[in-house]
Amino acid sequence: MDRNIAVVGLGYVGLPVAVAFGKKRNIIGFDINEHRIQTLNEGMDYTNEVESSDLQVADVYYTNDTNQLKKADFFIVAVPTPINESNQPNLIPLVKASETVGSALKKGDIVVYESTVYPGTTEEVCVPVLERTSGLVCGKDFFVGYSPERINPGDKEHTFTTITKVVSGQTEEVLEVVACVYGSVVEAGVYRASSIKVAEAAKVIENTQRDLNIALMNELALIFDRLNIDTDEVLKAAGTKWNFLNFSPGLVGGHCIGVDPYYLTHKAEAVGYFPQVILAGRRINDNMSKFVATSLVKQMIHKNMPIQGARVTVLGLTFKENVPDLRNSKVIDIIRELEDFGVDVQVCDPVAEPVDAFKEYGIELVPYERLKPAEAVVFAVAHDEYVEKGWSQFSELLKHGKGIVVDIKSKLERELCPDNIVLWRL
Hints:
The structure is a single chain. The radius of gyration is 23 Å and the shape is elongated. It folds into three domains: 5-195, 3-Layer(aba) Sandwich (Rossmann fold), CATH 3.40.50; 206-283, N-(1-d-carboxylethyl)-l-norvaline Dehydrogenase, domain 2; 287-426, 3-Layer(aba) Sandwich (Rossmann fold), CATH 3.40.50. By secondary structure, the chain is an alpha/beta fold. Helix 7 (196-226) crosses helix 10 and helix 11 packs across helix 12. It has an eight-stranded mixed sheet with strand order 3-2-1-4-5-6-7-8, with helices on both faces. The protein has a five-stranded parallel sheet with strand order 10-9-11-12-13, covered by helices on one side. The protein has helices spanning 14-22, 34-41, 52-57, 92-102, 121-134, 172-183, 196-226, 231-238, 260-270, 277-286, 288-302, 331-340, 354-361, 384-389, 394-397; strands spanning 5-8, 27-30, 60-63, 74-77, 110-113, 143-146, 165-169, 190-192, 311-315, 344-348, 376-379, 403-407, 421-425.
């Protein structure tokens, strides 16, 4: 399908999409972030999603000049869709991107959205913006489609080209064009959804389902903690059954699993239904950071450790292992809760950018080699660097090599725990 493609938004989702198309043809990669454009033109992706070698071979013209978008006739919009402090959808980035695309629209153009939204957003929110800014009529002069992103940050196996791509369009003809365009680069093939709303709904329930499965594991962890049973050992035993689902407890942050369910519940409430199961899962997951922090404080009290002024080291701040993304990280909630108890918290993360950590949370990251010995260590994010060091690292991280270790993701072998260390985990 001979289309001039422009990808709008070059973050964790947009850049892999742009590079995949850029390996097949010349395309435009647009982002409003001038620093992002500069570093990409220098052959560097600071999100670590795309290798430098792939950037070099991809024929992508990176720009923040909106005039360049007028050369395109097939627009892929991949901008963030976060939530606000009230857990309501924040569609400002999506609306702004639609205004930008609208200013470049011509007759016959197609706009495909990849951002995670609630069912109806493309046609009810984005289309009016496109029409207003372009002066054109949707369905007559230009057309829209929706193809939900399935990028998993840090995952080098399940990538844009190796995951089945759900596609949709407002007409059969548009759907066929969208399917052909994506099919030209997605090796796993495309799935044609019956409508744009179906595609939007499919995306939003993918992460809602994962959120609820993790919430169940987290609730089990809360119960087993009171019963003095190791959750990880229970899950290993239960996992011997062929159809037991492999989920584990943990912090649910980031810009997908911890956010997307609120888009669905927002729309549900707008049509008069008030979700119970989904929001219950959200409440459990959102409160896990507080549970971890208070559990650590209880362990410290049991060991007659002073709380106020005690030093606790937190290993990892990003929302996920081996990924520099700090957005909606739930580790910060552990830190804030400990600080409320009067604890002196020092934070280290080998993959996060110190400038971003301070800008986002006011946290000054401490280099690993400059960490001071602490009463306790929270192994919050399972970065490879920490996992590879294993138990040996705590002889230096803890005062006199003894204290408390909180292993949130159960990455440390309980059987190898030194006698002078108390291990607590979800």
